[in-house]
Amino acid sequence: MNSVFEVSYSWNKEAIPTGGADPVYMMVEWRNGAPAKRLRKIAPKIVSRDLELLLKPEFGVQLKGIYGCRSKETDIGWVLRLGDMYKGESKQILLEFVMGPRVSGKAAVCSAYWSTRKLKQSQRVLLRREQLYIQYTSHLGMLRQPEDPKVEKTIKLSETVPLIKQALRAYERGRVQEGSNMLRRHADALLIEAARKQDLDYYAEAEIVEKLRYHYGITFTTGYHDREKKILGE
Question: What value does the mean pLDDT take over residues 172-199?
Answer without folding.
Answer: 94
